[in-house]
Amino acid sequence: MVSFAQPGAAAQQVTADEPKNVIQPSQRLDPGIYPFPNANAAAAGTVQLAWKPTKVESLLELKLLELFCGGLAGGENSLLQKVIVDSKTRATDLGATGVDGYLLPESEPRFPVPSVEVSGVPGNRINAENLEQLRRLIMNAIREVSQYPDESASLLDFNRAIAATAVRMRRSNEVWTKSPPGFESAPPKKEWKSYFERLELDPSFVRSLSQEQVWQSVEKQLASGKNIWRDLIQDLHLLEMPYITAGIPSPDLQNEIQRSKQERIRQKISALMQDYGAGDEQGALARFDEEELAKSREIDKIETKVSHPRFTDHPPLVPDGEIRYRQFQIEGVPVIASLFNRPPTIDIGLSFDLRKIPSRYYKYLPLLPECLSSLGLKKAGQVVPYTDLSNRVQREAWSSIILRLQTLAVYGIFWHAGSQAMNRTPVGMWRP
User: Fold this and answer.
1) Which pLDDT tens digit goes with each residue over 212-262?
2) Which of 28, 107, 187, 199 would give a disulfide with 113, using CB separation of 3.0 to 4.6 Å?
3) 313-323: b or e for each residue (b if 16 or more CB lie within 10 Å)?
4) pLDDT in tens, 49-65
5) Bridge-partner residues for 327, per DSSP?
6) What CATH number labels 25-250?
7) What is the torsion angle, in degrees rounded to the nearest 10, for the CA atoms of residue 207, residue 208, residue 214 and residue 215?
8) Domain segments of the chain: what residues?
C-alpha cells in the first residue's frame, strides 16, 4: 500500500522534514485479499492493518506511539485481545487467536507506520465484509481510548498495562546496549544501524544510548493521570481509515501450482526424449542420469587436484576451553553453573530427562509450555494467574524468559536424543 522511489532515482538533498525515501501512500482503502497456496481452505490466515506514515517530532513521541501500539494490540493484556480474541469479552467471533501491534520495521523512525496484526483467523472466514467489520472494531477501540476522561478507571487500567510494557522494553534495551553487537555473525546484525537512525530524532550533539531521559518522560506522563493518548491519536491521524489486507489459504492456487509443476516436468522429459532420441521416458531419464554422473565425476577429479590447508594439530575440544564453571546439585538435580564477569543478565535454562517417556508421546511435548503457562504460579498456597504472572515477569525480568519457556518441550526432545547417544542425564544450566 506504500510505494518508495526505485534505486537509481535522481539523488536530491533531503531535509529533516522529508522522508529519505519518497513515500506515495495509495488512495485505495478497500480490503486487499491475497491467496497463498494451502490445501486447507480453513487454515489460519493473517490480517494486517497499517496507517499512512506520519511525521513524529521527537524520540518521546515515537516511543509513545510504539507503546500505544503495544497497549492497543500487544498480546494477551492488550485492548484488542479483549475485543477480538478473548471468548468471554470479544465483540465478534472471527476465530482469531492472537493480536500484535508494532511499528513496521521497514518504515523510517521519523515517518513511522503503525500496524496491527490479527493472526489465526480461519481462511474461510476472511472476506471483504468481515475485514470491514474488523477495521471498524479497531477504529472504535482507538476512538474509545481517545475519549477516556482524565483519571478515569479505564484510562488508568490502560496506562498500567502500557507501563508494564514500558518497563520490559526499558530493561530489554538496557541489556541489549550492554551486550556484544554481533557484527561478526552471518548474516551481520543490523539492529545497531536501525537504532542509530532512531537516535537521529534527538537534536542533541551528545546522544544517550540508553535514552534514559526519554524513558523518564514516558514514566512521568503515564503516571500523570491525564489522557496523553488523545493528542497523540489526533496528531498522528490514527482515527483516519487504515489500510487492511489479508492472506488466505487457497486450495485452487496450490492445485494450480502442482499442475504447473507437472506440466514443466512433462515438457522437460519430452525435450530429453527428443535430445537423446529415446523411445520412452525411462530411457531418456537414464541417459540424462548417466550424463549428470559423468559431470560429477569430472568435478570430483578437478577437486582432487586442489590443495587444501592442513588442519591444526591442537584444535579446541570445547566451544570455550577457558570458561569458569561449577558443578553441584539443587535438591538432587544436577546443575552446571558457568561464571562470567559482570554479565548484563542471568540466563537460566532447564533440560528435562525424557528417556522414560515413550516416543509415541513426543508429539504432545510442545503442549508443555502452554500447560505450564495456564497453571500460573503456585506459591505459599496461593495461585497467581498467568496474566498477572506475565505482568510481574515484564516488570522484574528480561522478556527473553518468556521465549525460552515456549521452547522448553522441543528443547527437551533434542536433549533426549543426545543424552541417549552419550548415556548421560541432561542438567539445568545458568549463567550468574
Assistant:
1) 999 999 999 999 999 999 999 999 999 999 999 999 999 999 999 999 999
2) 107
3) eeeeeeeeeee
4) 999 998 999 999 999 99
5) 336
6) 3.30.830.10
7) 170
8) 25-250, 251-289, 324-431
